[in-house]
Amino acid sequence: MTIESLDLDAKLGLYRSQVELRQFEKRAYDLFLENYVKGTSHLSLGQEAIAAGFAAAMREDDYTFATYRGHAHTLARGVPMTGVLAELMGRTNGLMAGKGGSMHLTSVEHGVMGSYAIIGAHLPIACGAAWSAQYRGSGQVAVCFFGDGTTNIGAFHEALNFAAIWKLPVVFVCENNLWMEYTRTSEITAVEHPAADRASAYGLESIIVDGNDVDAVFEVAKKAIDRARAGEGPSMIEAKTYRQAGHSRADPGKYRPDEEVAAWLAKDPIPMYHARLLAEGATEAQLSEIDRAVAAMVDLATEEAKAGETPGADLLMKDVWADGGSAWRN
Amino acid sequence: MAQLTFREAIARGIAQEMRRDESVLMIGEDIGAAGGVFKGTVGLFEEFGGLRVRDTPISEQAILGAAMGAAMTGLRPIAEIMFSDFFAVCWDLVVNEIAKSRYMTNGQMTFPLVIRSGNGGGLRFGAQHSQSVENWAMQVPGLKVVVPSNALDVIGLMAAAVRDPDPVIFLEAKALYATKMEVPDGEIVDTLGTAKVVRQGSSATIVTIGAMVPRSLAAAEELAAQGIDCTVIDVRSLIPLDTQTILREVSATGRLFTVEENPRVLGWGAEISSIVAEELFYDLDGPIVRITTPHIPLPAADALEDMAIPSVSRIVEEISRSMNG
Q1: Any chain A CB within 8 A of the CB of B115?
Q2: What positions of B carry a catalytic annotation?
Q3: Domains of chain A as residue ranges with CATH
């Protein structure tokens, strides 16, 4: 399948998915300011096209491995907004009843096999899920998202080599948003393209995609996932993008030059796609109906999340072990 | 019955489980055709093939990540970390990922995996290939920790570890690999979380694990000649911990001695001492004494290493002094 074969309905779906992720992240930010969401959080504002494009290219039983910047990847797989928002708010109707929080969103039934907050750790874990799929002959593919900063940690290199030698059905996706936390990635990385320039070291093709163009992301994702499913081994894709907000809740992102922010805001994936769909025959009414429906969806999720209960002591000692308990002695 | 070495028992235990369950796989460095650097996996590659007994690069994070990802998607991997010292380069996977993910996901995931590792000193390998790290693992909520002391227990506890739905750190005392014992034929399956009373006495209770079990038993024989009759408990499983057996046997003798290979500070015996002090204080007839390696990195020279790790004579001496003091 190529992007030409996506009909307008499918493209409206990609638009809707991006709008959902955008509206959700904005609401999550507002709920921080209102102190409903505690702790920290890392938003994907500006990076929605990558999550939306990949999720659309995945089979229902494929595996997603995300980072602490994982709200978008979780939602894009069809996880209900209420569960995600309630998890951020520490309520029992959260995805993990409040025991994981923003950085560890997981929904096994949707193939979201965890969001990992130690840089690089989940690349080897994604290899393990891919190894399992390979051994079981299930045809499943693991898609593993990470940031540019991850390319400088050891686990990245161990995982790439491991995936290559075992020809694992895994797709590594580097979301290069130019900033490793508060430091410009180019200042602390030996090569220009932190993922793509390393690919050849593991016998992989160097692939770079415009991460703000959901059609382009979908196309490259489909190709890599199909390739993995066909037993042809791993791929690594570097998606160029930009986070429109700071690294985390605590970071206003002041270190970024104004002109850089302005240039990337002009390349915001959603208005860009909005304009493309109009050119391809969608109507303003269709698109604004999507915007409106999503806004209502986010409002409803907010109300449902707020109505969730605060977890009690029964949850505290639960599920350390598979028997549901936490006993370590008799 | 067959005479089996500790190292042969490892392969036998794994083979028993791999024959029974196709979801059991084994990965690690040099574990395939080479049979493992400690020869703990000899014959597995030949019997089960390269897809189930798979060599990896020197990539401990990749090994444990692979095991975790496989376990969360329905397989039962056994991963080998050649020397337990190497846990230091992949401890994130153990502590932050494998141990926490079931709890963090509110029970959405289970991790039926085993991580085997050669542990402890006595082989003159020096400080980076000789550590006893059972207390590292014991301190992490979400890990089970098994430390067998003989070939029979290796088979039964390996089977129990593979069948257990939770992650198990399986520490094999390198000093015991060559030890032999008679082992019955047929399937052997043990139970995690059960300590064994391996010598029954009346004067004092020695609580120990792994390579310190045979030394404690030898010390108990010498002490018996001095009129000090010791119970010896092989704890076998630090988590879950069979506290009841320990409390019962300490209560019967009124004295507790722990014999630990790990460096002194916060060794597993400290936790057991604390439990006994809290729950059995009024049954004690004398101080709790911990006999451990000093709080030092292990030296390489045989003369120095032998001074560091509790020896039969040191165990005898310390127990005798305390009992007669």
Answers
A1: no
A2: 129
A3: 3-316 (3.40.50.970)
- Is residue B92 within 8 angstroms of chain A, CB to CB? yes
Q: Which residue matches tokens 């940031």?
A: A147
Q: Which of A103, A102, A206 is nearest to A151 (CA)?
A: A206
Inspect the interface and report whether the beta carbons of B105 and A114 lie closer than 8 Å: yes
Is any Cβ of chain A less than 8 angstroms from the Cβ of B25? yes
- What is the C-alpha separation between A270 and A194, in angstroms, rounded? 26
Please state which CATH number belongs to domain B196-324: 3.40.50.920
**How many CA atoms, within 13 angstroms, populate the side-chain half-sphere of residue A170?**
30
Q: Domain segments of chain B: what residues?
A: 2-183, 196-324
> How far does the CA of residue A26 sit from the closest CA of chain B (Å)?
25
ipTM of the complex: 0.96
Q: Inter-chain contact B62–A136, Cβ cutoff 8 Å? A: no
> CB A124 to CB B61 under 8 A?
yes
Tell me the shortest Cα–Cα distance from A235 to chain B, in angstroms.
Answer: 17
**pLDDT digits 0-9 by tens, B97-149:** 999 999 999 999 999 999 999 999 999 999 999 999 999 999 999 999 999 99
pLDDT in tens, A21-70: 999 999 999 999 999 998 888 999 999 999 999 999 999 999 999 999 99
pLDDT in tens, A37-46: 988 889 999 9
Beta strand ranges found along chain A (DSSP E): 63-67, 112-116, 142-147, 170-176, 179-180, 183-184, 207-210, 235-240
Is the overall model pTM greater than 0.90, yes or no? yes
